[in-house]
Amino acid sequence: MAQKILTVQTRGQGLYEFTGDVAAFVRDAAVEEGLLTVFVRHTSCSLLIQENADPDVRRDLDQFFRRLVPPSDDPSMRWIVHTMEGPDDMPAHIKAALTQVSIGVPVVGGRLALGTWQGLYLFEHRDRPHRREIVLHLGP
């Protein structure tokens, strides 16, 4: 069993790949077979496994979620009550609720069993930069 906390510094809304850091953790742990649990310790960002070859995929996903859940100062979002931290606050919580804060990835042969074009991403839902913590837990 091995554990580590990764820190991802964001610059605002968008997807931030951290696959390389996770692959290094798995390699250093020297576990041949197991399950890696990836968990983000925040309520206004989330985790995704997504294509890492074409950056247009990340841009399109980011735009889709911005259109799906606009800021609370958008006329369509007048129903929102929680606005203490700005117009991106409650929409960030909604986006996190629609996605996931924990991902399980099998480890096979000492490596992440991700597909050829798959990568691990932190999906930042807030406008301002944040320092996000991601817990990695590798078990048998």
UniProtKB/TrEMBL annotation:
Q: Which domain of life is it from?
A: Bacteria
Classification via InterPro entries: UPF0047_YjbQ-like, YjbQ-like_sf
Pfam families, sorted:
YjbQ
PROSITE patterns the UniProt entry points to: UPF0047
Stored PANTHER family: UNCHARACTERIZED PROTEIN YJBQ-RELATED (PTHR30615), UPF0047 PROTEIN C4A8.02C (PTHR30615:SF8)
The UniProt entry's sequence similarity note says: Belongs to the UPF0047 family.
**Name under which the protein is recorded:** YjbQ family protein
